[in-house]
Amino acid sequence: QSALTQPASMSGSPGQSITISCTGATSDIGRYNYVSWYQQHPGKAPKLIIYDVSYRPSWISNRFSGSKSGNTASLTISGLQAEDEADFYCASYTISGTLVFGGGTKLTVL
Amino acid sequence: QAQLVESGGGVVRPGQSLRVSCAASGFSSSSYGMHWVRQAPGKGLQWVAVISYDGRNTLYAESVKGRFTISRDDSKNTLHLEMNSLRVEDTAVYYCARDPRDGYKGYYFDYWGQGVLVTVSS
Fold it and tell me: A84 burial class (0-12, 13-18, 19+ CB within 10 angstroms)?
């Protein structure tokens, strides 16, 4: 199972919105609404921010939102803040019953 | 508050074995699917294995299939990963993670441990 494809890096200024894409295949993202997103700060464990494409855990700000179209999922962060600077990973359940992650996107807040 | 704490990491030679464990607290692990996810130094996340809430379903990434075994001891609220025939490329921080579902389908992780480092080096 190949890793999902994410941009290696993105950047934005405080207050702006950015969208991170995550491209898979008909055997994973295109087949199931089981896409999740995780935020990881340096030296820390990942943290869940979106599950089932667009659902947010109760502890996550509504500045984070998720969507999907075909084989591509997206994470949008609105009103960028300094503390959003981190690595972001998408993940999808696959037809094989396994889970595949994206390569990760390093977000820099300018 | 759910908490996961990994233990058992260390340095081993290629071909050797190691078992890492994950102690759960604040919830009953028998109600949840549980996973191992790893991260090689400076690299991204890689899913390793899942065990269903009832222990009847286990699945592995191709890269570890036949070498790693995931198991659970719900009497001790503990998850294990037995790693055999270790390779240099298995070097990583290993995280255990809780799946709010049953571990049969549609995985995602709402709680993660702090991770334990496994280094395979000659």
Answer: buried
Sort out which chain B residues have CB atoms less than 8 A from A1's CB and list them.
Answer: 62
Q: How far apart are CA A6 and CA A3, in angstroms?
A: 9
Cα dihedral: A54, A60, A64, A66 (round 10):
-10
First-to-final CA distance of chain A: 35
pLDDT tens-digit readout, B8-49: 999 999 999 999 999 999 998 889 999 999 999 999 999 999
For A:38-77, CB contacts with B below 8 A are 38, 40, 45-48, 51-52, 57
Instruction: Give the pair of three-digit tokens for residue B37.
Output: 């996810």
| Separation of alpha carbons B14 and B35, rounded Å | 24
Question: At which residue do the structure tokens 């995550």 appear?
Answer: A22
Q: How far apart are CA B66 and CA A65, in angstroms?
A: 38
For the stretch A27-47, pLDDT in tens is 999 999 999 999 999 999 999
Contact predicate B48/B36, CB 8 Å: yes
Establish if A21 touches chain B: CB-CB under 8 angstroms. Answer: no
Query: pLDDT tens digit string along A60-77?
Result: 999 999 999 999 999 999
d(CA B116, CA B94): 5
Bridge partners (DSSP) of residue B5 are B23
Whose structure tokens read 């981190």? A86
How far is the alpha carbon of A19 from chain B, nearest alpha carbon, in Å? 19
Tokens representing B105 are: 């389908």
